[in-house]
Amino acid sequence: MALDSSSTLADALAQFNDNLSWEGDIARARNCLAAVRWIIGNRPIFVADDVKRINFDSMERMQERLESYLAVHGTAVGRCSFTEGRMVL
């Protein structure tokens, strides 16, 4: 699901929770990063109820981890989907 200006906090949290196991999966990492950025960018002054609390410091640390991961693994530069080896004579 792509988050946009009409998305709600519930949408962002759902995308975040759906992609918690992002390590090793570039698509999940991108989705998780988008959710983290949405939550941080649209954060209210305080979010809490009887069940949930959001710690924005940990969200910012997760954003840094996701950005680092995608900086290394998120591009196809220098990679190919297959290789072919031939003996040079």
Task: Describe the protein in words.
- This protein is an all-alpha fold.
- The chain has one domain.
- It contains three helices and no strands.
- The chain has helices at 9-18, 26-41, 56-73.
- Helix 1 runs antiparallel to helix 2 and helix 2 (26-41) runs antiparallel to helix 3 (56-73).
- The longest helix is centred in the last third of the chain and has 18 residues, at 56-73.
Q: Give the SSE string.
A: HHH
Whole-number total of structural domains: 1
Q: What's the number of extended β-strand segments? A: 0
Cα shape: elongated
What percent strand?
A: under 5%
- Class by alpha and beta content: mainly alpha
Mean pLDDT: 80
Main pleated sheet = none
Distance between the termini: 52 Å
Rg estimate, integer Å: 18 Å
Q: Based on the structure, what is the oligomeric state of the protein chains?
A: single chain
Spans of at least 5 consecutive residues whose pLDDT stays below 50 are: none
Percentage of helical residues?
40-55%
Provide a count of the helices. Answer: 3
Question: What are its keywords?
Answer:
3 helices, 49% helix, 89 residues, mainly alpha, elongated
Layout of secondary structure:
Layout: H1 9-18, H2 26-41, H3 56-73
Helix pairs in contact: 1-2, 2-3
What's the short story on this structure?
It contains 3 helices and no strands. The chain is an all-alpha fold and 89 residues long.
